[in-house]
């Protein structure tokens, strides 16, 4: 892994606990600095199963261009996250720069709302398959799909394959 890589992991209440923590811890094991970024800095957010996480920064307090990758966990948090214009602009900025964007489960909602899925190949939880297709993506029922800078995955059992693909892409940057 290259040195001094930095990633943003978006956070809001009701994130899927494993889909936030597994990627964050895997990246940290690889030496990547991962910042949890939410609506407010130093705010405690609670996952669907009660695991807490505290944000490092607020959406408006970071410069997304200083980061090498972006992660969006699933759960119900994506439905909240996609309502913030700052979040959508972060996603668009990372996409314009062709930096890795990872999304799992319901997190595809954030990318759909940012309008960056047109013509892309993705996966997600089957529950939002139609949303992904309506956003212009081609949907596959696979553990992980990589299309350019976007790495997508379905659900917690797919986390090992998801993070392997995400880390491989990040290493190519």
Account of the protein in words:
The protein has 173 residues and is an alpha/beta fold. The chain has one domain: Rossmann fold. The protein has helices at residues 17-29, 77-81, 85-96, 108-113, 129-134, 159-172; strands at 6-10, 33-38, 44-46, 52-54, 57-58, 69-72, 101-104, 121-122, 138-139, 144-147, 150-153. A 7-stranded mixed β-sheet has the order 5-2-1-6-7-11-10, with helices on both faces. A two-stranded antiparallel sheet has the order 3-4. It has a two-stranded parallel sheet with strand order 8-9. The protein is globular, with a radius of gyration of 14 Å. The mean pLDDT is 97. Residues 6-168 form the DJ-1/PfpI domain.
How would you sum up this structure in a few lines?
Residues 6-168 form the DJ-1/PfpI domain. The protein has helices spanning 17-29, 77-81, 85-96, 108-113, 129-134, 159-172; strands at residues 6-10, 33-38, 44-46, 52-54, 57-58, 69-72, 101-104, 121-122, 138-139, 144-147, 150-153.
CATH C-level class: Alpha Beta
What is the second-level CATH architecture? 3-Layer(aba) Sandwich
Order of helices and strands: EHEEEEEHHEHEHEEEH
| Strand order, sheet with most strands | 5-2-1-6-7-11-10
- Which residues sit in consecutive blocks of at least 5 with pLDDT less than 50? none
Q: How many angstroms does the end-to-end distance come to?
A: 10 Å
Number of E-type strands:
11
The CATH superfamily appears as: Class I glutamine amidotransferase (GATase) domain
Strand content: 15-25%
Helix/strand/pairing category: alpha/beta
Proportion of helical residues: 25-40%
Annotation field: number of helices: 6
Radius of gyration: 14 Å
Biggest beta-sheet profile: 7 strands, mixed
Averaged pLDDT: 97
The overall number of domains is 1
Looking at the structure, the CATH topology is Rossmann fold
Which term fits the overall shape?
Answer: globular
